[in-house]
Amino acid sequence: MPERSKAPAPFDVAAALRARQVTYGSWIQLASPGVAEILANAGYDWIGLDCEHTAADIATVEAVARAVYGRGSSLLVRVSRCDTVEIRKCLDVGAHGVIVPLVETVEEAERAVAAAKYPPRGVRGFCFGRMNNWGVDFDSYVKEANDRVAVVLMIESKTGVENVEKIAAVPGVDGLFIGPYDLSGSYGVPGETGHPLVQEARLRVVEAARKAGISSGQHLVRSTPEIREKAVADGLTFICLDGDIIFLEQAARTTLQTTEKK
């Protein structure tokens, strides 16, 4: 029997986060496997699938994981909440890590990490599934998973910022992801992401991650070269560029606006 060929390994986003390497990803909100294929083919290090603010469910996660497979990008899923079973299921159907929203306490951070790690480091359950090629690669997957599965926590509230140094220091946390719009609401200035209170909170998160030796990141909406350069200069290394709905809207408007109407 000929030897089974293997697809190229995905980008090791967990290692990059711990090395504070600058990486670029993009966001999927349209829940489309086709979009995931396009973004992965474009060369993004990681693809973020939003399951918090969209109609995406676990079947969507599995379909997107299949679409990304073998294309070099890692798949990170923003789960709907810090839930052990949801995190487990996303990883078992093929995600390479999770982005956990609204983490405000050390206890929540520890719960998120435990959900993503096999014993003795956590409580993730063992099984055959997509993540280990339906059991064919069970041993090798289990051996590497605790180091290769990325755990990123979203800091998007005043309480989260107040506890961010302790949250960043929780073993197994690979990165912090800033939610500027939710931060603005939490600080009483909804939508004013450039407000001094929000910017001060943002920089505190970046500094906490730096001191803990992990990455910090942010979604850059309608990014420009100047915005991207400033983000890196501020110390961000886990950078999400725009996203499917932004790319589509911008391209659609630009094409129409630059088309001569007769």
Which key features would you list for this structure?
262 residues, alpha/beta, 12 helices, 44% helix
Q: How are the secondary structure elements laid out?
A:
Blueprint: H1 13-18, E1 23-28, H2 33-42, E2 46-50, H3 58-68, E3 74-78, H4 84-92, E4 97-100, H5 106-116, H6 138-148, E5 150-155, H7 158-162, H8 164-168, E6 175-178, H9 180-186, H10 196-212, E7 215-220, H11 225-233, E8 238-241, H12 244-257
Parallel strand pairs: 1-2, 1-8, 2-3, 3-4, 4-5, 5-6, 6-7, 7-8
Helix pairs in contact: 2-3, 4-5
The largest sheet has its strands arranged as: 1-2-3-4-5-6-7-8
Helix content: 40-55%
Portion of residues in beta strands equals: 15-25%
Label the overall shape: globular
Could you explain how this protein is built, in words?
It contains 12 helices and 8 strands. The chain has 262 residues and is an alpha/beta fold. Strand 7, helix 11 (225-233) and strand 8 form a beta-alpha-beta unit. The longest helix has 17 residues, at 196-212. The N and C termini lie far apart (64 Å).
Task: Summarize this structure briefly.
The chain is of the alpha/beta class and 262 residues long. It has helices at 13-18, 33-42, 58-68, 84-92, 106-116, 138-148, 158-162, 164-168, 180-186, 196-212, 225-233, 244-257, and strands spanning 23-28, 46-50, 74-78, 97-100, 150-155, 175-178, 215-220, 238-241. Helix 2 runs parallel beside helix 3 (58-68) and helix 4 packs parallel to helix 5 (106-116).
